[in-house]
UniProtKB/TrEMBL annotation:
<comment type="similarity">
    <text>Belongs to the peptidase S1C family.</text>
</comment>
<keyword id="KW-0720">Serine protease</keyword>
<keyword id="KW-0378">Hydrolase</keyword>
<keyword id="KW-0645">Protease</keyword>
<dbReference type="Pfam" id="PF13365">
    <property type="entry name" value="Trypsin_2"/>
</dbReference>
<dbReference type="GO" id="GO:0042597">
    <property type="term" value="C:periplasmic space"/>
</dbReference>
<feature type="domain" description="PDZ">
    <location>
        <begin position="189"/>
        <end position="282"/>
    </location>
</feature>
<dbReference type="InterPro" id="IPR001940">
    <property type="entry name" value="Peptidase_S1C"/>
</dbReference>
<protein>
    <submittedName>
        <fullName>LuxR family transcriptional regulator</fullName>
    </submittedName>
</protein>
<dbReference type="InterPro" id="IPR009003">
    <property type="entry name" value="Peptidase_S1_PA"/>
</dbReference>
<dbReference type="InterPro" id="IPR036034">
    <property type="entry name" value="PDZ_sf"/>
</dbReference>
<dbReference type="GO" id="GO:0006515">
    <property type="term" value="P:protein quality control for misfolded or incompletely synthesized proteins"/>
</dbReference>
<dbReference type="Pfam" id="PF13180">
    <property type="entry name" value="PDZ_2"/>
</dbReference>
<dbReference type="GO" id="GO:0004252">
    <property type="term" value="F:serine-type endopeptidase activity"/>
</dbReference>
<dbReference type="InterPro" id="IPR001478">
    <property type="entry name" value="PDZ"/>
</dbReference>
Amino acid sequence: MDLSDNLADIVGKVGRSVVAVHGRHRMPSSGVIWREGVVVTAAHTLRREEGVDITLSDGRTVATVLAGLDTGTDLAVLKLDGVDLDAVESGDAGSLKPGHLALAVARADLLGISADFGVIGSVGGPWRTWRGGQLDAFVRLDGGLRPGFSGAALADMRGQVVGICTSALMRGAGVVIPGTTVERITDELLAKGRVSRGYLGVGTQQVTLLDAWIHKMNLPFNSGLLINSLAPGGPAEQAGVLIGDVLIELDGKPCRDTDDVHAALGSASTGQQLQLALIRGGERHACSVTVGERPQRNSCR
């Protein structure tokens, strides 16, 4: 009974700061009052930018204003006024270990608060999503999320919210967006309504380099990135990059896979020049590219 009562107390405590977000047809998603006047939810659950209402724990339905969303980390930030409910007590996702118990707390239907009890499936270091966003830690739940639980709060056994749940970043499994990531993205969305990421405008495919190239250019690695598409008018096309080039270095560092490109762009700012080393026609070729800002993909569709 002690464990059961403790879990119910955690759900009741966290649930006061969990809201239903009416940003799509039929079933609402969940959201969390992360700061005073600020609600965080999963970006992929919003199907419109205006007219997004939320239902609070006391039953009131109030209007919000979308501050911004980031598809890379699947976070959206909504602003609301005149609400005196407390924000959640945030915890550290870095303290989680595989096998730790956790509670997902949602408010996604007319029945009020809902909870899903489970364990942490796996934990890792910083993780780049397939959408190009960077999470400060990889935390996978043991199993998928029930409908409406994207945007829910994930609480540890101390009742602290360690992150936001989403089903959009990994097929068939729930992933936790760590609280430190939520803080960072929330700051940026509140400040400028979007998250800026570097952009070259290339599509690539990893390829094995020919032995002749490796010996001729004295390369200490055997893979590169074949340029198989170029964004019209994008930074790479403007710099003279051609389809069929093989990218081997970016700003003096090896480019063996797409992670190397993301790492280089992660530390680069829009407008900064980067030096590319390419293989073109069996010869080493160099050019300079000016980093652009990745176009914002609007998930409100």
